[in-house]
Specification:
Oligomer: single chain
Order of helices and strands: HEEEEEEEEHEEEEEEEEEEEEEEEEEEEE
Helix content: under 10%
Number of strands: 28
Shape: extended
């Protein structure tokens, strides 16, 4: 099963779990009010490339009183319906249409449709079935991000995660030349970093794919915090419009950490200032606690734009102790505008070296 089919299956299962329980039952008066010309739909063999398919049922109200369809549930967002919302007159014929989008599906698929009628505790269940032939995937679908000219890649954001002092880490990405001629390549790191290096092929043949390799080398006496670098690709001397964005979080080396260790807790980790006047500086105190058995060291404090605090790198919190951090964020924008700010703490807590505090504020 490929990635998109896994996600489709996952979210379909989730939707089924969250949807109201539905089964065909008799109403309180012993008779379900709606009668359809067929109970289920089998679209048979369909092609993903052909797009949405639909089927229209004919149904009637077989009860003695007007009834109204309250709502309809489906087990996946790929399935939608169209039906009359006005009261259904007894004995009159109506149409109920089901639309199924086979995008990102493959093979046998099943979807459930639940029809709820006002005044009835349960619902009528219908099943949709189809056998989907996936659309062929071309180079542009596999490598959607254009780096420069006709040079493409499957993803342009590469996150290394945590990188410890004295360690190195490599990640690679595939780049492909989606043209019928050879191109000259060059990779340029635009930031003034001393810990990132790039290995990029100098030539890429027509319709050829190669790997570009990114390496972070963090010295044992290096720095702490988040490192974000941009790597631009030049094709035949022309810089592209989208760079690779390479990121890592520089931390202590926890390889041989023992049982005696610090444990950071923050109270609170989220705060909503509500409505504040534009130009005001909103402030909030946060408690930084050490619930561990070794000193907690604040290695780095990082802020979103317009946000500061009085907590300084190098601050030590003794076991069982705490410090108060006052965070200030500038209120900007027009009335009704909402903004999110953040503070990131990098510490020597080996369980979770990076912790985030989030702030919300709305301009009054």
């Amino acid at each position: 099963m490929n990635g998109h089919n896994f996600l489709t299956t996952f979210f379909t299962t989730l939707a089924l779990a969250l949807a109201p329980a539905c089964q065909t039952v008799l109403a309180d008066n012993g008779k379900w009010p709606l009668q359809f010309d067929q109970p289920d739909i089998d679209f048979g063999d369909i092609n993903e490339a052909d797009g949405i398919v639909s089927h229209t049922f004919v149904f009637s109200n077989i009860s003695d009183e007007p009834v109204t369809i309250d709502f309809v549930t489906t087990s996946c967002g790929c399935t939608t319906t169209s039906y009359p919302t006005e009261p259904l007159v007894p004995g009159q014929m109506y149409e109920f249409t089901v639309f199924f989008n086979p995008a990102r599906t493959e093979g046998k698929v099943y979807r459930d449709i639940g029809i709820f009628v006002k005044g009835y505790k349960e619902c009528q269940n219908m099943e949709l079935e189809a056998n989907v032939t996936p659309a062929p995937i071309g180079v542009r679908q596999m490598y959607p991000h254009v780096l420069a000219g006709n040079v493409r890649t499957s993803f342009s954001n590469i996150a290394f995660g945590y990188l410890a002092l004295g360690h190195s880490m490599q990640k690679s990405a595939v780049i492909v030349n989606d043209s019928d001629r050879e191109v000259r390549l060059k990779a340029v790191i635009s930031t003034r970093t001393d810990i990132l290096s790039v290995e990029c092929p100098t030539m890429l043949g027509a319709n050829q794919a190669e790997s570009i390799i990114f390496t972070f080398n963090q010295p044992a006496d290096g720095r702490y915090g988040t490192e974000i670098d941009s790597v631009w690709i030049y094709a035949d001397g022309v810089r592209g419009s989208v760079p690779f964005v390479i990121s890592t979080i520089l931390t202590d080396d926890f390889t041989n950490v023992g049982d005696i260790r610090p444990a950071l807790s923050i109270d609170p980790t989220y705060y909503d200032f509500g409505q504040q006047k534009a130009g005001k500086v909103a402030k909030k105190e946060f408690q930084i606690r050490n619930n561990g058995e070794a000193d907690l060291i604040i290695r780095a404090v990082e802020y979103s734009e317009g946000t500061t605090s009085d907590l300084r790198p190098g601050t030590a919190v003794r076991p069982g102790g705490s410090v108060t951090m006052t965070v200030a964020t500038a209120v900007r924008g027009i009335a009704g505008q909402k903004a999110t700010a953040s503070v990131n703490l990098i510490t020597n807590d080996p369980i979770r070296p990076r912790r985030e505090i989030r702030l919300n504020v709305e301009t009054k």
